[in-house]
Amino acid sequence: MKRYVALWLKLLRLTWQLFPGQTAALLVLRLLMVGVTAATALAMRAVVNAVAEGDPAGAVRASAVTALTLGLNAYALGAEHNVLFLLVERVGLKHVRAQIDRDIAGLEGLDHLERTDFLDRVTVVRGAAWGLTYGMWNAVDTIFAALRLVVMLVLLGVVNPWLLLLLAFAAAPLWFERRGRKAIVQAELDTAERMRLQRHLFELATEARTNKEIRTAGVGPALARRQEQIWQEMAEVWLRARVRSGAWRFAGWSLFTLGFAGGMGLVAADAAGGAGSVGDVVLAIMVAVTMRESVETTVSRTATVADAGRLIEPYLWLQEYVAADRGRAKGDRAAPDRLRDGITFDHVSFTYPGRDEPALDDVSVHLPAGTVVALVGEYGSGKTTLVKLLLKFYRPDEGTIRVDGVDLAAIDTEQWRRNVSAAFQDFGRFHTAFAETIGLGDLEHLTDTQRIEAAIRSADAEELVRRLPDGLDTELGREQGGVDLSEGQWQKTALARASMRERPLLFVLDEPTASLDAPSEHAVFAGYMARARGLADRAGAIVVVVSHRFSTVAGADLILVLANGRLAETGTHEELLALDGRYAELYNIQATAYARA
Length: 597
Ligand SMILES: Nc1ncnc2c1ncn2[C@@H]1O[C@H](COP(=O)(O)OP(=O)(O)OP(=O)(O)O)[C@@H](O)[C@H]1O
Fold this sequence. Notes:
- InterPro entries: AAA+_ATPase, ABC1_TM_sf, ABC_transporter-like_ATP-bd, P-loop_NTPase, Type_1_exporter.
- By secondary structure, the chain is of the alpha/beta class.
- The protein has three domains: 2-324, ABC transporter transmembrane region fold, CATH 1.20.1560.10; 342-419 and 503-596, P-loop containing nucleotide triphosphate hydrolases (Rossmann fold); 428-502, no CATH class.
- It is built from 21 helices and ten strands.
- It has helices at 2-18, 20-52, 56-105, 111-114, 116-126, 129-159, 166-206, 208-217, 220-272, 278-307, 309-327, 383-390, 413-418, 434-439, 449-458, 462-467, 487-498, 518-539, 550-553, 573-579, 582-596; strands at 342-350, 360-368, 372-377, 398-403, 406-407, 420-423, 506-510, 542-546, 558-563, 566-571.
- A hairpin with a 2-residue loop joins β9 and β10 (566-571).
- The longest helix is centred in the middle third of the chain and has 53 residues, at 220-272.
- The radius of gyration is 35 Å and the shape is elongated.
- The structure holds adenosine-5'-triphosphate.
- Residues 114, 352, 355, 359, 377, 379-385 line the site of adenosine-5'-triphosphate (ATP).
- The site of adenosine-5'-triphosphate has 12 residues, from α12.
């Protein structure tokens, strides 16, 4: 709870700093509403007493005050709502949301996107900005609701001090409600896994990618049945929890009602016996009604505040994660202007968090400057992981990667990434103008048409541009009213994007042609081999190509064969064939398969 309060104070401070006038207005309005409620009750007592005492002037005066306080209350309520939503939207969406985006974008590694337990939290946090800010005001509101409760009790105490005992009865619904909520929270926890599964099944059934297979295999109805069964199971758990929570609520409000019925009886008996006035009875009734509202507001606000944990916990986790990430040295050495010696892996091992088997196991190899290096190996052998370490998405658990003798960890991450280019098998589909989707590969040259056209030529994508309705200005993505591209066309845009930088030190092509047909693949590779020589001349660049198709990498200067995370063989195509080991075996299998096809 201490952490929550600290976060709310931080958000309140931020709101105050950004919009001091509106924040002060909101707090004053809330305080005003507490005073106005009490004033209304007192004014109504005065009206009734004046009538009972036969004082028409006093009755009119008191009625006027009552009308004024009721009017003020209505005005304050409306104004309070408007100011609240204005503040929450401006602070939540504009500042908290922007900060969350900056925090996520500033993370060095990929853990937060690749680990499902982290990704779940990141997803929650992304949508949490509004809720977090609103939650803070809910917490503030709880304080005001409690204050109103105390003021009401004091008023009752003035009528009869015994009525102060009603505090205990007012607390009952709060306590019972909490017990009830526990049952609901437990039910949500108990069904969380089924909820995830249900969501997954829904996505399977509705996503275009998976739907083709699902329709062909005819498993749609089975999926729907499975989903229905999961809903049924979840509904049963929730129903039981709701019944239990309802019983707790009922018990709490019954106690409250009993206490107040007793209190009212006491006041009425006092008035009838001459110890109190009729106005006191009206005051007590008024206070009781307002108190019920106050308790209800406090209860619902407390519940919302407790619920806020669902947003706050992942948010605080992200803050700690970001702080730890910032605390890690990101390197302060400049990236070299050109590679002279190359990149050396020295006994590098890496295991993904949560996995037992290393994805890379004691890899030692030198990638000479100015060469094309191919990574081959079966599925899951560690090729992409090696690339990820080169791009500093992860750091080796053991061993060192050196760039011209300098530890890669010591080189400033942003600088290093500004000096590399990469196209991945799971390429991005940026929904924007075609030229921009390419230009994003080098932000400094986002609108440099000449460069964009050169990048398009490198990726052999000129034909693709010619077919677009508005050429380079064509908007991509159907959601934005633009055109959609085929897998192969998207892949070519990713390749072109990766070709924007003219002087990278490292150029990675991780299965960049998996979605292309054989002639396109051939053309692309021939083009990139030629480009690699140019890059080697310009900056001693190393071009790393990951591919399953051995024929495409035969021309590489160095081929690394990975097997189960270990470096099984290294050499040129001819050397590896002569070695007659794993590479030769896999190469011959593929060659035979292609010859047959
Ligand atoms: N984000 C991740 N979290 C946990 N394990 C991972 C992750 N990414 C990869 N792995 C595991 O690490 C090992 C190496 O994976 P990697 O993606 O490097 O192989 P690859 O050779 O590139 O495979 P492919 O040819 O299928 O792309 C595999 O066992 C894989 O399951």
